[in-house]
């Protein structure tokens, strides 16, 4: 099934991040991308390259080594980025579990 809206994509995205280690690596990459954004805004230059590299290096390695699936970034780049931020901030707020359960991701 090809999702037609972000609302359709969201549960699919969560199912592709079913393992806690996958999500943990995504959180690390997202946090590092925010950390790289600060010097990028302040100094510019090569720091801008560090922003996506920090995020995607962790995320893609998680999909290859842990989840063993293909990152959603390749099929839905914008929705994937938005979903990554949504997942990150829901996790920080302690509100991700109901979304995982609704998507059919069993707690581990």
Q: Describe it for me?
A:
- It contains 5 helices and no strands.
- The longest helix has 24 residues.
- 71% of the residues lie in helices and 0% in strands.
- It is globular.
- It is mainly alpha-helical and 108 residues long.
Strand and helix map with partners:
Elements: H1 6-15, H2 20-43, H3 47-67, H4 77-92, H5 97-102
Helix pairs in contact: 1-4, 2-3, 2-4
Keyword list:
108 residues; mainly alpha; 5 helices; globular
State the helical fraction. over 70%
Strand content: under 5%
- What's the overall average pLDDT, rounded? 94
* Radius of gyration over all CA atoms, rounded: 14 Å
Report the total helices.
5
Uncertain spans, ≥5 residues at pLDDT below 50? none
- Main beta sheet: none
What letter string, H or E per element, gives the SSE order?
A: HHHHH
What would you call the shape? globular
Give me the count of strands: 0
Précis, in short:
The protein has five helices and no strands.
